[in-house]
Amino acid sequence: MKFTIAQIAAILGGKVQGDENITVDKLGKIDESNLPEGSICFLSNMKYEHYIYTTNASVVIVGENFIPKNEIKNTNLIVVKDAYSGFTQLLQEYDKIITAQTLHKKIGIENPAFVASSAVLEKNVYVGAFAYIGENTKLGENVKIFPHVYIGENVIIEANTVLYSGVKVYPNTTIGKNCIFHSGVIIGAEGFGFAPQKDGSYKNIPQLGNVIIEDDVCIGANTTVDRATIGSTILKKGVKLDNLIQVGHNVEIGEHTVIAAQVGIAGSAKIGKYCAIGGQSGIAGHIEIANKTRVGGKTGVNATITEENTTVQGYPAQSYIGFMKSSALFRKLPELNKKIEELEKKLNDSTK
Amino acid sequence: MKFTIAQIAAILGGKVQGDENITVDKLGKIDESNLPEGSICFLSNMKYEHYIYTTNASVVIVGENFIPKNEIKNTNLIVVKDAYSGFTQLLQEYDKIITAQTLHKKIGIENPAFVASSAVLEKNVYVGAFAYIGENTKLGENVKIFPHVYIGENVIIEANTVLYSGVKVYPNTTIGKNCIFHSGVIIGAEGFGFAPQKDGSYKNIPQLGNVIIEDDVCIGANTTVDRATIGSTILKKGVKLDNLIQVGHNVEIGEHTVIAAQVGIAGSAKIGKYCAIGGQSGIAGHIEIANKTRVGGKTGVNATITEENTTVQGYPAQSYIGFMKSSALFRKLPELNKKIEELEKKLNDSTK
Amino acid sequence: MKFTIAQIAAILGGKVQGDENITVDKLGKIDESNLPEGSICFLSNMKYEHYIYTTNASVVIVGENFIPKNEIKNTNLIVVKDAYSGFTQLLQEYDKIITAQTLHKKIGIENPAFVASSAVLEKNVYVGAFAYIGENTKLGENVKIFPHVYIGENVIIEANTVLYSGVKVYPNTTIGKNCIFHSGVIIGAEGFGFAPQKDGSYKNIPQLGNVIIEDDVCIGANTTVDRATIGSTILKKGVKLDNLIQVGHNVEIGEHTVIAAQVGIAGSAKIGKYCAIGGQSGIAGHIEIANKTRVGGKTGVNATITEENTTVQGYPAQSYIGFMKSSALFRKLPELNKKIEELEKKLNDSTK
């Protein structure tokens, strides 16, 4: 799609500096060396400022605070309040058009799919080829089920939710509105519970609960969410999970908490609202994490965090500042060790 | 299903205190705030005792040692030897009924499935829609293959094993009786082996071995077990693997070892029997772990452990107690550093 | 297949010591206790030398530098320049034969598959049952698509690339020649990008870019590679990824870099050529890693590495040698602490 610079400025509520009749049809990054003509990009981080004087982009979105150090001859500007927000808004507008042309056009059952006779499909549902919809399952309006998705019995999926190719949903799961699950997501597999026997072997503890996922939840590729032993594993409204995350049985994750890739959350942990958890961190079982907690990458949280709005890091987790200080000294341990040896020597010499 | 309290007490070999004719049809947890009428739960951990005086559950399973601090007016009791074991037994009985009504009823080939002409299917096998069974593959009695499972050529799966939707089994794999593989499990992909070439590039080392999985093995969602370069990668009887675990080529895991989520085991490592490995730990290649070793979460085991029945933790792994002591001092490094500086100052002052 | 020892020696350019007419039909490892007759194995690491005097293998490949300590009576030898290389060469020859008999024979579309009418399939392509090929997708000569693979719209896959069962490729991805993707690989899911809103919730940042994978790239089971926000996530020629790895949006991985299992690479990180990254390591977002960097297992790299050809380890990453020294002292922290306390006491006593 082609737009004039003037049209884009109108969408973003910005002002044009340069030729507003030039057309644009591609998104780019300002630090790309060979942006083609017709590209639009943005300048927000001033470490990239030098690119604006040489870029081939047809137009650059800049913030109203931007004062160029040199003259800009090679490109045109759209001046908005904040360059990054403006560009994000542009991405969203562009995405809306793309989505309308692709995702929204996927309607109906592609052949061959397996839809149980007791399944209920609302208006504008898409069921891709080789998808499997179990008995008594309900798919709300505009739900999009891509090829190779498996949905067991008695599952409820509310309006506008999208399950990409290869998602597996075990029976009795409940999924809210406007959710997006990427390929390879597994919802509702058995929690990891085994009762040790006298001979050292283990007997499976039946996992009779389910998973409840509220509205606006996004789950990344190959992430797994186990069902509860009894009761429910719960992802609250607006939770965002990245790829390859493990969510154990009976875990609860609070509203609008974001979790980066490869985090593991052990059984029955309860994570608050508005938390942010860094990649590859681990949360021990049966502990609680207060609202607005920030957990640094690769952290091992092994105890309940009761105070809201703190940042922790390390293995085991401690305060972020404490971790930074201790880590710096960890590097200096050989030096500290030497100092101690010297002190011992000196003291021995002086007391001889 | 509804049972009277008397019927449940009879199953568990317990005694009723209260009204034995009340019926129960739901499992619950004592700390759930709004347990519906008809719920049964248990009290084992005394930190939850206060809930027993207010719960809406119709009956609570308690141990024979339980002496209530207050009068219990609102619910009924079933008194058994040990509350937790009693509840687990109840779960198992309940699960048996559910399984008989669901899993055991899945029999026959659902359409469309792909079953090679030379494949052999014993009695009561289920092959779900869109499942793929390769040439010369044998499925034992009561094997249940869910939709979207792929089984390559020359695979043997023994009786009662269940492969949930989306499991992939490469050719020449052998799987024992009573195994459960959850969705997304990949068995037998190529081990990671590359021979460095003179120009810095790599050439694949062919992986010509297979995977052997013995009886009673459970594997969690999205876990991967690579095939051997030559010979076999082996999971012995009773091994339990959680989700998102990596098992490298030529690894051997001993009988009744349990491994938590996101653990990685590098090529040719040999893990003993009755071990327990915590989540996100890593085991280096070509090392051995003695029987009954316990590995704490997030540990990096980089050397052979020869002594049985020890507990290790840390990165790199050390004794659990040592790790705890050193970790506590890691937090105090800024303090220790200050002490050293003060000592230096003092000593300098005193020797001036 | 059976070969005489003489035939194998001819393939490897080696000399026979013993009976060159004996036939061999199995590959084995010298430390296997019950190698069947007809086995061939190799001796490279001299810690295994004692096996050569008792093995049942029909022939052992040895290097020309090998001087036996005892007389070898029980087996025959093929003497080559380097035993390990010789055996690897043998594996490769064996693999070629197997591949010709299996993979290369898979040609045509297995029923039922879904191939969009606008998709283009070159000569000798295989599309397995239940595979899905989207609109405008192009599969080059000899491309092999196994069952349950999903390929979205506008994907290009060049000659000889193999996608095993269950691989998912999102729209607009480009994949080069001679690539191998194992089961469960997900290419092109949405990058993890969310714009925080004033109320603490998040709005998805559209991910409008794609993934570009060059020639000779191998990707292990259940690894995920996210698409770029704008532009491309790029895996350069010869990259080798193990299982369960996360590659974030806009990441670039240089030629012939190898990455072990469960590594996570955050968005916009740029990794050089000829690097080797150990298992379970994490690379922070927006940083650069110089060519030929070696990263030890479980390392957390949180800052750009500018010097080529260095080795780092630890959390956070430091020089390998520094990490080893500091780790050794970490274990001794209780001892160091005691020394400091003693020094304080002594000094106090001496200054009293």
Question: Which properties best describe this structure?
Answer:
352 residues, UDP N-Acetylglucosamine Acyltransferase, domain 1, Udp-n-acetylmuramoylalanyl-d-glutamate--2,6- Diaminopimelate Ligase, Chain: A, domain 1, homotrimer, 10-stranded parallel sheet
Could you please describe the fold and organization of this structure?
3 copies of one chain form a homotrimer. Chain A is an alpha/beta fold. Chain A has 2 domains: 3-101, MurE/MurF, N-terminal domain (Udp-n-acetylmuramoylalanyl-d-glutamate--2,6- Diaminopimelate Ligase, Chain: A, domain 1), CATH 3.40.1390.10; 105-324, 3 Solenoid (UDP N-Acetylglucosamine Acyltransferase, domain 1). In chain A, 16% of the residues lie in helices and 28% in strands. Chain A contains 4 helices and 40 strands. In chain A, the strands form 6 sheets. Chain A has a 12-stranded mixed sheet with strand order 8-11-14-17-20-25-28-31-34-37-39-40, with helices on one face. Chain A has a 10-stranded parallel sheet with strand order 9-12-15-18-21-26-29-32-35-38, with no helix packed on it. In chain A, strand 22 (194-196) and strand 23 (202-204) form a beta hairpin. The termini of chain A are far apart. The mean pLDDT of chain A is 96. Chains in contact: A-B, A-C, B-C. At the A-B interface, strand 23, helix 3 and helix 4 of A face helix 2, helix 3 and helix 4 of B.
